[in-house]
Design brief:
The structure holds two protein chains of two kinds. By secondary structure, chain A is α+β, with helices and mostly antiparallel strands. Chain A is built from 19 helices and 21 strands. In chain A, strand 4 and strand 5 form a beta hairpin. The longest helix of chain A has 18 residues. Chain B is mainly α. Chain B has a single domain, classed as Orthogonal Bundle (MetI-like fold), CATH 1.10.3720. In chain B, about 80% of the residues lie in helices and about 0% in strands. In chain B, helix 3 packs antiparallel against helix 16 and helix 11 crosses helix 13. Chain B is flat and about 85 Å long. Chain B starts with 8 loop residues before the first helix and ends with a helix. The chains are: A alpha+beta, B mainly alpha. Chains A and B meet through helix 8 and helix 14 of A and helix 4, helix 5, helix 7, helix 9 and helix 14 of B.
């Protein structure tokens, strides 16, 4: 929480936020109001963002095959690139995950949450000098909604039935009510482009704090500060250089030799070694991504709920977090939501490793013989080790697990979502609704646990259009319990995002939204020489 | 990752066989068998041509063969990538593939057409010098490769001009002091360098020169508009790594070849005739030792261009190897094909050059009986 408070404090200091706005946002974030007064008093003492300097990032995830079109952005590298030059309509609050205005100034749902009206910010200019119009916004959303598009946001946009202008306001009509619509528009593919990017999707011209100076796919990207940026609370460094570094050791060497200021994807196994370097700071942020062991609920032998329960109790979660994540993570509770989501259902009992209960359920299930688990290190880092650890903890409960290592190449098309018991990874989604709709709705393409429950589906749809938050939270609790106790998901851990920077990098915001300060790392930090 | 692309293998495995194969006698043999095989098609003209101008005949024949080889390579790459699990659409989209998106991409790229049709249409373009556009980035393959190939050649060139003279000189030095201390030192050090995996050599150099002493540039990323001296300083560490990796091999071959020749009867005769040591080496020993050395050098040069993906990754150097691996990972066929062809062409060209040089260096091969 203190990170976010500092972030807000900085905004206050910079005069970018008045007192009223600050209190409003603090309330939203749950910052104790008492601290607000002192913040305003002491803000002059707090560290002020410094302008200028050349920020260098060494990032994993770039490939020569990366497309400049934000609709097709897939890699971690392109995620940050898009955040640098573009803006979405809505952003998510770094600490609470609530939607906050970006290019949309404000929004209003209809009573059934099926029609949303957005007021688009005025006076915003694209990098080419053109002014942002309602037309650009509409065209952008249309491009991503097109069935023929290859947009990564197509799944998110499918629920939008109609995109139209009402004067200078944007009206979105949905196929059904969705209280989370603003959060869906935070998707990093949905960068607003001139004429929606229909003319030239690869132009990389947007409204963001940095202009693209050069870009070579899989190698390097450089940016210059956009002097006409419509926001003053971001874009502190003068220029950014992003270098593709796919080798973990190379990233660490580059950081510890001071050649770059920031690296992503630090292997938890080497974090402790990296910590010893005096100039390096480890930046670990709780995230929504989770490492999972998934069983198909409709396939023998996993159609047996007692066997599923036995396998859930056989998982030594604490040990997994310590061993596989070197402590950089949180234990999971067999439902895909953690406290970083808005409306997280608190107080659900943590499932623990219990060989006795596991043995009891195993006996009750009547299953005999080994259970085949397929895995590969592409599922998540050290997945094979995790599978072997699991094999050992299950053995103590008398359950024999046979670990089969599959080739990493083609794992996602041949094993995951195909074989009945495998390891996998889920990145988080902006909302609980999104997470459940993507992977637990009966009709979802990626229902990788074959969780087919009409009552769950019905509840999910009801919760989606429910504008009363208390009621909604209750529904999410029921759904979490269903997945936890009856689903095919074994969720031992949520991984932290482990990144690192030199100590001269200041103002890093631990954003729960996604890795690398939700991709905004380069626009939020400043360099203190 | 490493299993996907051209790997580190060639430098360590192929040279021995290939070197042996292209030793002087077999070079001549290839030429004669070739002429015999083509004899019935072109008649006695080709036969006379072969006898009269063996070198020109060899070059023409090799060029013809290499076209056939390239064709076979393209067929194998196409088949190989097709045989990999998953096609471009599913692997490109990865875990986030929806049936709709997969369908769109397949239709867009014509992946729904039959295999042979796709291959033939690609071949048709390639013959006319059009390698098509990358499926993933939708950019022209030729344009992208031009850039990457330039980087690869830049790195390979500097590694070569350092390592080749050094290797030959060290080899001669080792002969000069054979079985004495300098020879032993050279041998032990070169054996150690060849035994260490290249990425490990790279990490060691990074650790000492970039992290601890801070004298070398790291990462070695080069980009458009970078000054020549900046580029040179950027590639210092990767060049050093490559030199260490290829040096031992060439050095040992030089040493062995010269030693071999020096122990032959005619060198002894020359010695007994009272010729000076330099004259013996230059006029009598060197021409006979040069063929195997050139072959090893050629293979190492080829390796420097096509086999250095691990070094590229470690040093964050944007060369061809990484480009091809990226493409194979998502089954970006036009890029994989183009890279594969270029790699194959390099091997064929360098081997041909080695054979020709070997023939030029040896009068017995220039004038076969």
């Amino acid at each position: 929480m203190s990170d976010y408070k500092n972030y807000l404090a900085n905004q206050v200091m910079l005069g970018k936020m008045n007192r009223r706005e600050f209190i409003g946002r603090s309330l939203a974030a749950g910052v104790a109001l008492s601290s607000a007064g002192t913040l305003f008093a002491t803000s002059a003492l707090a560290q002020e963002p410094k302008k200028g300097g050349h920020l260098k990032l060494g990032l994993e995830g770039a490939a020569a095959t990366d497309s400049k079109d934000p609709a097709k952005a897939l890699s971690q590298f392109m995620f940050v690139v898009g955040r640098n030059w573009g803006d979405m309509l809505v952003e998510s609050e770094p600490l609470t995950g609530q939607p906050v205005p970006a290019l949309a100034e404000s929004w209003e749902p209809s009573a059934d949450a099926a029609t949303w009206t957005f007021t688009i910010r005025k006076g915003v200019k694209f990098h080419d000098g053109k002014e942002l119009t309602i037309d650009d916004v509409i065209k952008t959303l249309q491009r991503h909604t097109d069935e023929k598009s290859e947009s990564g946001a197509l799944g998110v946009m499918k629920s939008i039935k109609e995109i139209k202008a009402d004067g200078d306001k944007l009206v979105l009509v949905l196929t059904e009510g969705n209280a989370d619509l603003p959060l869906l528009l935070t998707d990093y593919h949905l960068v607003i482009q001139p004429n929606g990017g229909f003319d030239n999707p690869d132009a990389m011209i947007g409204t963001g704090p940095y202009k693209v100076a050069s870009f070579e796919a899989g190698v390097r990207a450089t940016f210059e500060r956009n002097a006409d940026d419509w926001r003053q609370d971001r874009g502190f460094v003068d220029s950014i250089e992003m270098i593709a570094m796919n080798d973990a050791t190379a990233r660490i060497a580059a950081l510890s030799s001071g050649q770059v200021h920031y690296i992503n994807r630090v292997d938890p196994k080497t974090v402790d070694l990296l910590k010893r370097a005096p100039s390096v700071e480890i930046l670990s942020t709780s995230g929504r991504g989770h490492y999972v062991f998934i069983m198909h609920c409709n396939t023998a032998p996993f159609d047996n709920s007692d066997l599923r329960m036995a396998l859930k109790y056989s998982m030594d979660r604490e040990n997994m977090v310590q061993t596989i994540l070197s402590g950089y993570g949180k234990v999971g509770n067999d439902f895909p939501i953690n406290s970083t989501y808005a409306l997280f259902p608190e107080g659900i009992e943590q499932r623990a490793y219990d060989p006795d209960k596991a043995a009891f359920h195993y006996k009750k299930s009547g299953h005999s013989g080994p259970v085949l688990l397929r895995t590969s290190d592409v599922a998540f880092p050290n997945a094979v080790d995790a599978a072997v650890l699991y094999q050992q903890s299950a053995k103590k409960a008398g359950i024999e697990i046979e670990v089969k290592r599959e080739p990493g190449d083609g794992y996602w098309s041949n094993v995951w979502n195909v074989q009945p018991f495998s390891t996998s990874y889920w990145g988080g989604r902006p909302t609980q609704d999104q997470m459940y709709s993507t992977a637990y709705l009966s009709t979802a393409d990626w229902n990788d646990t074959r969780f087919l429950r009409p009552d769950f589906d019905k509840l999910l749809l009801e919760a989606r259009s429910e504008l009363d938050e208390a009621k909604r939270k209750d529904m999410y609790r029921t759904m979490a319990m269903m997945v936890r106790d009856e689903g095919g998901l074994i969720l031992p851990m949520f991984n932290d995002f482990v990144n690192a920077s030199t100590k001269s990098v200041k103002g890093y915001v631990h954003d729960i939204g996604n890795d690398m300060s939700n991709g905004y790392v380069a626009t939020r930090v400043w360099l203190d020489a | 990752m490493a299993a996907l692309g051209p790997d580190t293998g060639p430098a360590l495995t192929i040279p021995k066989d290939a070197g042996g194969e292209s030793l002087p006698p077999s070079g001549a043999a290839t030429a004669t068998t070739g002429s015999a095989a083509t004899g019935d098609v072109t008649g006695s003209f080709w036969h006379r041509f072969t006898l009269g101008r063996p070198l020109a005949a060899l070059i023409i024949q090799r060029l013809g063969l290499s076209v056939g080889l390239l064709f076979a390579v393209s067929l194998m790459i196409f088949g190989g990538v097709e045989a990999l699990p998953g096609d471009f659409a599913t692997t490109y989209l990865g875990q986030s593939a929806t049936p709709q998106a997969v369908e769109n991409i397949r239709k867009d790229l014509g992946l729904d057409r039959p295999l042979t049709e796709r291959y033939l249409s690609w071949l048709g373009g390639a013959v006319q010098g059009d390698f098509g556009t990358s499926w993933a980035s939708r950019n022209s393959v030729s344009e992208q490769i031009g850039n990457r190939l330039g980087n690869s050649l830049f790195l390979a060139f500097f590694a070569a001009i350092v390592s080749v003279p050094l290797a030959v000189a060290l080899g001669m030095l080792a002969v000069q002091f054979r079985n004495r201390l300098p020879d032993r030192i050279i041998n032990v050090v070169s054996l150690a360098a060849i035994s260490l995996p290249e990425f490990f050599v790279g990490y060691l150099l990074i650790l000492f020169f970039a992290v601890q002493m801070g004298v070398a540039t790291f990462p070695a990323t080069v980009y458009d508009g970078m000054g020549f001296t900046d580029r040179l300083s950027a590639i210092a560490l990767p060049v050093a790594t490559l030199v260490l990796v290829v040096l031992a091999h060439m050095m040992r071959m030089t040493r062995a070849a010269i030693l071999n020749v020096m122990s032959s009867a005619y060198v002894e005769t020359a010695e007994l005739k009272g010729l000076g040591a330099f004259r013996i080496i230059a006029r009598h020993a060197a021409p006979n030792a040069v063929a195997p050395v050139i072959n090893v050098i050629a293979l190492n040069l080829a390796y420097l261009v096509v086999g250095v993906v691990v070094v590229e990754v470690v040093f964050v150097y944007p060369g061809m190897g990484q480009y091809m691996v990226d493409a194979v990972t998502v089954r970006d066929m036009p890029v994989v094909q183009a890279c594969g062809l270029i790699f194959a062409a390099f091997y064929i060209f360098l081997n041909m050059a080695a054979d020709i040089l070997a023939i030029l260096a040896n009068p017995r091969l220039r004038h076969p009986r």
